Amino acid sequence: MENNIALELARLHILQGADFIRQLKLLASLPDFHPVVGETGIYSMGGEQSEDYPSLINAARLLVRMGYRVFVLPNPKGIRTADFIIESKGIYKMYDLKTIQGKTSVLDRLLESIGQTNHVVLNICTTYNARLLATQIRTYFEVNKEALEVLVLKGRKVISVTRRFTLNSSYIWLFRDKYEK
């Protein structure tokens, strides 16, 4: 089945619009996805031995608390794929996870996701300056014209940052207000 899932994931790189969404729904409906033991709303089709798996599950738990269902994607060899398909109220999106644990530049981590997906989850597991974070997210949108959304996970909150939000003249102030609460 690994070849089949690799083929289905590879198709995501050539599909757009409604076809892309249909493909995400098809992937999420594959019988190879099974509930992760001890979790609710998190599904996986393997990869439990991966060194990234604990970070994926930690971020997935936060997303489930916010009302999402999370499908952890496998990483077939030779295909750049995202980490998650996330579903909420029948809307499916694909996200790449970037966990921030130290003083690593968020911008560098965001730039790594270019070519994988246009949605990124930033799981902030350290103290990170809100103004710097907001500025780096804005720069990411300026550099990556395909980027649509960055979901920032901090503690028990999720902050959705879209390109449109970063264009608001009060963006830095509004982001800091949400992030520092």
Mean pLDDT: 92
Largest sheet: 8 strands, mixed
Helix content: 25-40%
How far the N terminus sits from the C terminus, by CA atoms, comes to 45 Å
Low-confidence stretches: none
Quick one: overall form?
globular
What is the tally of helical segments?
7
Give the helix/strand layout:
Elements (H helix, E strand, L loop, with lengths): L1 H10 L5 H12 L5 E2 L6 E3 L8 H13 L3 E4 L11 E5 L2 E10 L5 H7 L6 E6 L5 H14 L5 E6 L2 E6 H5 L3 H10 L1
Parallel strand pairs: 2-3, 5-6, 6-7
Antiparallel strand pairs: 1-2, 3-4, 4-5, 7-8
What can you tell me about this protein's structure?
- The longest helix is centred in the C-terminal third of the chain and has 14 residues.
- Strand 1 and strand 2 form a beta hairpin.
- The protein is globular and about 45 Å long.
- The relative contact order is 0.11.
- The chain is of the alpha/beta class.
- The protein is built from seven helices and eight strands, in the order ααββαβββαβαββαα.
- Helix 4 packs parallel to helix 5 and helix 5 packs across helix 7.
- It has an eight-stranded mixed β-sheet, with helices on both faces.
